Amino acid sequence: MVADGLAISLFPRADDGIDLPPGAVIGAAFTDHHLHLLAAAAALRSVDLSTARSLMEVGDTLAEAARRTPQGRWLRAWGIEETDLIEQRLPTVDELDRFTAGRPLVLHHRTGHLRLRNRAAEMTGPPDPIPQEELADAVAEIGAQLVAAGITAVTDATHTNDIVTLELLDRFRLPIHVTAMVAAHSLPGLSFGSHIGSVEVGPAKIMPPDCGLAALRHLVDTAHQAGFPAAVHAVDVDEVQAALDGGIGIGDRIEHLGLCLPEQLAELARRKVTVVTQPGFVTHRAAKYRRELSETELGWLYRLRSALDAGVVLLGSSDAPVVAARPLDQVASAMTRTLGLTERIDVDSALGLVGGAPRVGEAADLVVLAEDPREVARIDPARIAAIEILAVWRAGRLVFGDRRYWPSLG
């Protein structure tokens, strides 16, 4: 890592002035460059179906939740994904009715891009919102989880964010720095890089599945004219091409880059477009990709090594709640992926996806790890995910752990 012309070791060894356990190291705290805070909070207060492996398990879990839910109250569930189920399909409306015994149900797909409702829900209308107090408690829990994972900064990439959402996030006062994207059609009254309270206004989010590929150029132009970089959701090759045809360039972002042709990768590098990827997807959703993609497509999947070699600016993220926001898990996944083996990267490159960038003379966010990831990588890269976070400092203030790990600060 280089800052202001001076080399800085990502994980410097402890000196005599720092009381660390043997083998522990200090480094830059982590950043999750793409997640969804309110969706993650809502998932905490929903029936969790993410571990279900059959429709019978889905039914049993929902039926038990329905028994505990008073008549007329909504059931919320989250995390179902058809490729995880032995039946390889989502439940029908008839099945949902049978599972839930008349309670209105809204069931969110793991990706967040699909929701199912039973007949009771269709008859009831829109679901009751999660009570503000309950949502605030859930967001606080998410904040504590993020800090405990070594994260001190996030970008909320929710495509429906507007000024009201940013004001809500500000009221929750998370113990981390929050940048929030805003919907490309909700830019009036906002300026990129400004703040709504403690929340920084981020790029303009563009969602081709919602707006259509034909509207992409107009939305990119709208963002640029308003002084915003564009952040384009692009999972498939056609979405990547539409973003390129739509005029994205330096300062803009591609979110995901799930599948990408070699020539598209080269063009993204030439234009200096930032790509925000999810290394954990290839590990945690491997079964889905094996079923859905050809051998050729698996070689184009969530590219890491070829993107870095091409000169692409690459950042890592979790897309939580789709995958848990644990940066060390992402590091391990980037090194040990079993799909597209040539896309594996070394430990320093993987840490660079999720690490902060301390600058000489500025207060830095720091994390204390019980073991050096570089040492662990030599023995078993997969074990990096299990390294314990001992303490986290945000600009000199302890936000997690024991202050003895850096007694000269705070």
Features:
about 400 residues, alpha/beta, TIM Barrel, four-stranded antiparallel β-sheet, disordered N terminus
| CATH topology label of the largest domain | TIM Barrel
Sheet with most strands? 9 strands, mixed
Architecture of the largest domain, according to CATH?
A: Alpha-Beta Barrel
> What portion of the residues fall into strands of 2 or more residues?
15-25%
What does this structure look like?
The chain is of the alpha/beta class and 410 residues long. It has two domains: 233 residues, Metal-dependent hydrolases (TIM Barrel, Alpha-Beta Barrel), CATH 3.20.20.140; 79 residues, Diaminopimelate Epimerase, Chain A, domain 1. The chain is 35% helix and 21% strand. The chain is built from 17 helices and 19 strands. Strands 4, 9, 10, 11, 12, 13, 14, 15 and 16 form a nine-stranded mixed β-sheet that branches. A four-stranded antiparallel β-sheet has the order 3-17-18-19, covered by helices on one side. It has a four-stranded mixed β-sheet with strand order 5-6-7-8. Helix 10 links the parallel strand 14 and strand 15. Helix 1 crosses helix 5, helix 2 packs across helix 3 and helix 15 runs antiparallel to helix 16. The longest helix is centred in the middle third of the chain and has 17 residues. The radius of gyration is 22 Å and the shape is globular. 44% of the residues are buried.
